[in-house]
Amino acid sequence: MNIKGLLFGSAAALAAASSAHAADAIVAAEPEPLNYVRICDAYGVGYFYIPGTETCIKIGGKIRTEGEWYDAYNPSSRVGTLWHDRTELNIDTATDTEFGALKTNTIFRWEWNDGGSTSSKLLFANISLGGFTVGKLDSQYNLYAGYAGDVINDDVIYDGPYELNQLTYNYDSGTGFTGVISLEDSNSTSTGDASYGASWWTDDKENHYAPDVVAGLGYTTGTLGFKIVGGYDSIVEEGAIKARIDAKLGGVEAFLMGGWNTDGDKLNKYAGTNQDRSACPVDHPELCGWGDWALWGGVGVPFNDKLKWNLQLAYTDSKIFEATTNLKFNPVKNLLVEPELTYVHYDSINDDTVAGILRFERNF
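The chain above was modelled as a monomer; its predicted structure follows.
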């Protein structure tokens, strides 16, 4: 046998042995195709199905850093620039039921302030079904009527309480008519005992069990909308009413809102103050609030899809005047750069405050 024949014979023997071994081997099954996350667009952009369920979930949030020059809420502040950082995580769920969509909303917030102070809290946690909502979110006195202007310092003139537990029913006729009624916790605002504004003003009762009440009606047609909402403070036994008109003309948005306090000599949860004590004379906290009434007005003008200018003006019966203007610039999608300037005049103490903010915010 020559060398070539030996090589061919060896190769044939090896091939036969390999074939026999392969016949006895366990062949691995082909991997199953990946089941990609299913999009759930019935509840809006960003929702997807939790695998193996019919529940939709949306995860989002924001990261913000901002520098603040002086304090629009504190005329005695002489501190220069302060930095503030915030992160929020939002989790929303929705499931279709025979009574409509069963939804939840949860927002966690973490903050750091110049000087090293940090804080964290559960900002919102609520459940809604068939028009009913129960849990923690901002008062319907703010949510239903709408917040003031599209500015950072929108509540230098107090426009209502935030972050409280409530049982709420919202009605929507589908033809423009809406309504709301809400029973709200009288002692659970974000400022604790200072449920009417600044930390130096307290008027609560540990053994008080009656809820506060908010009710409102509204109608929207085309580019015009009108809403009226009232809140009753069960501790002070006073309240306030706000009425608001919104209008849109092309891309320009404008609003006018007025508030009436049932007793201008008292602060209550719905006609309170966000001001520092130095903003009013000693022993006259009501002069940091509205007095009998308050007015807000604002306009927003988009120059293009990346740049918008906003202006808000507000004035009270107690002679506090506020003017705030800003520019909102979105260089890329979901990134905001926002410089803002605020001027406040306090007639009762004959003082003025000028404050500025530069904000950077990334939403996701």
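The chain has two helices and 17 strands.
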